Amino acid sequence: MRMYEGLFLIDNAHATTEWDNVVKHIHDILQKNGAEILKTEKWGEKKLAYKVKGHKRGTYLLIHFNAKNSAIATVRRDFHLSDYVVRFLIVKDDKIEDLSQIGAVVPAVEKDVDKIPEIPVVDISAENEVTVKLAEEA
Known about the structure:
By secondary structure, this protein is of the alpha+beta class. The protein has a single domain, classed as Alpha-Beta Plaits (2-Layer Sandwich). It contains five helices and four strands, in the order βααββαβαα. It has helices at 12-17, 19-32, 72-81, 94-102, 124-137, and strands at 2-11, 36-52, 55-67, 85-92. The longest helix has 14 residues, at 19-32. The chain is globular, with a radius of gyration of 24 Å.
């Protein structure tokens, strides 16, 4: 089994009224095809940059799951036929795959501000003085 990440754009009309049924529907499709769901995260409602199948707004759902390579084609077909899912993207998640084999739960990735290298500050006024001195000497 290989680890995958699925990002789903849910029809906003269904998401606001029956969120639990929508998530259960998506989980059922995955589990019906032999997937093991590791993590489900609601990203919330967003305004779309352009209309997608006539929708101006949508709710995003991110799911990490393990599945066989052969099951992904069937999973994609089932999501294309789903009334709840407007659009979806399923990709292999190689970075977390090693940890999932051990059975560890992977925490959300946080940006570490301390690891960002500092950029040296250059005093522009000092450079201008140097060029002016050079111009006066010439």
